[in-house]
Amino acid sequence: MSSTQDKNIIKFQKILDDKQYYEAHQLLRTIVNRYVKACQYVSSIDLLYDASKQFFKEGQFASGSDLALYMIKIYNMMELRPDTSSKTRLLDILYLYGSSEPTRKRFINEILSWSSKWGEACVGDADLHHNIGVLLAQEGDLFEAEKHLVLGTNESVKPLLNLLCDYLCEDDLNMAPFYASRIVFPYLILHNIACAIWGYRGMVDYLVQERNVITHTLSSSVADVVLFPSLPLMNFLCFLILTCQRGTVDLFHTLKAHYADVLKKSLDKIGHLYFNIPAQHSSKNIWSDLMSQLFSCESEPPGGLPGISYEPLD
């Protein structure tokens, strides 16, 4: 770093301390532009990161966000892959945004776009999705939080479940299958059976322990299933998970026929993903056929997947 650059950075800091925010912002951008022109990308990132945080802490959200977005632009110029350091910088800045700050959504979109371009996941980095989802969940934003949590890590199941249970706590008990489906269907469609199971188990624990819902346990050599006489669609979600675990196409057709009118679109999607079913399929099997197929011992769940059990979650 040259003495001229050092002097400019000192000048920037003095102008910022004097609360001349516009002038400080413009000077900082000029300094970074020179760094970028000289391919001094690491120094550019360090300067943008520190300056962006300072502007945020001064309540200058527009300037802070502009510099943060510039930092992501340099990430892309460097073809920088998501790692602990690069993600931590972005999350540090994200936490400084106010929930109502209009530029936050763009910042979130940009960091996910960068991570999808240079990372391993085409939908964006799982750690970033997790942290974004947790932040939105803490703000009580179910619809935005769940979009990110389902694309997050295994640790994302618990905050999503907690958020859904908080909403259900204020809602009618008959809405329980609706909230449970918001955790089961996305994970099944993402081919993540394990998280679908953990989410469903958590909802069962909540209904039994917090809402005192009456249940019956159906035991067999294959699985022990908790049934809800008053909430038949909860039973459907349980049977759907078991069906996807076992990978038996005839069993899926039976289940789909029984509930097709209610949940046709999602069932068609799962049928394509798990059983390679390209078109609609009608079946005359009745409920008793489903039960006998489900609890037969002809097939076992695919290896490496947890079975459904109902011990309370920690």
UniProtKB/TrEMBL annotation:
Keywords: Membrane, Transmembrane, Transmembrane helix. GO terms for cellular component: TRC complex. Belongs to the GET4 family. InterPro entries: GET4, TPR-like_helical_dom_sf. This is DUF410 domain-containing protein. The chain crosses the membrane at residues 183-201, 221-242. Pfam families: GET4. It comes from Pneumocystis wakefieldiae. One of its GO terms (biological process) is protein insertion into ER membrane.
